[in-house]
Amino acid sequence: MATFFSSELTIRRAAHAEISFDQPRSTAASSSILAASRVALPSSPAPSDEQVLATYGEVALVPGQIKNNSDQGFDPANPPRPQLVADAIARLVDTTERRPLRTVVMPEGMDFGVEGLNQAVAPIQNNLLTALGMSNMI
How far apart are CA 116 and CA 19, in angstroms? Predict the structure, then answer.
């Protein structure tokens, strides 16, 4: 997780060079944004360069918003069940014909559009696999 978070900061830092805010953030505003991101993600590693993070403005709040909102999307009556993963693996192992390239395992009714995304990407992926001489994977 630390490496991923560090990479995200690097990407955002590079992207920030091209972004200009209408009003510069005050030190107090930057400090409150940084504090909010720490509270929202207590188990996440702290950024290594807090001065750079403070320049992100409202973008610095995104990790905290994701964490706060991700918990709201789950239905307590339909919680994630690890057995769904085991069942999906068993189905793949038992498949005697061609297996799918992707298998989505989510609580019922919560695929967040993943199935639609996979269907939309499939023709592009298949063209690429064919171009690379790997059409046997389709």
Answer: 32
Q: What is the chain's Cα-based Rg?
A: 21
How much of the chain exceeds pLDDT 70, in percent? Answer: 64
Does the model's pTM come out above 0.70?
A: no
State how far the alpha carbon of 56 is from the alpha carbons of 1, 42, 49, 76, in Å. Answer: 20, 19, 12, 35
DSSP letters spanning 3-45: HHHHHHHHHHHHHHTT---SSPPPHHHHHHHHHHHHHH-TTSP
Position 15 pLDDT exceeds 70: no
Residue 112 region by backbone torsions, left for phi larger than 0, else alpha for psi between -120 and 50, else beta: left
List the chain domain ranges.
2-73, 82-137
The percentage of residues in the chain with a pLDDT greater than 90, rounded to a whole number, is 26
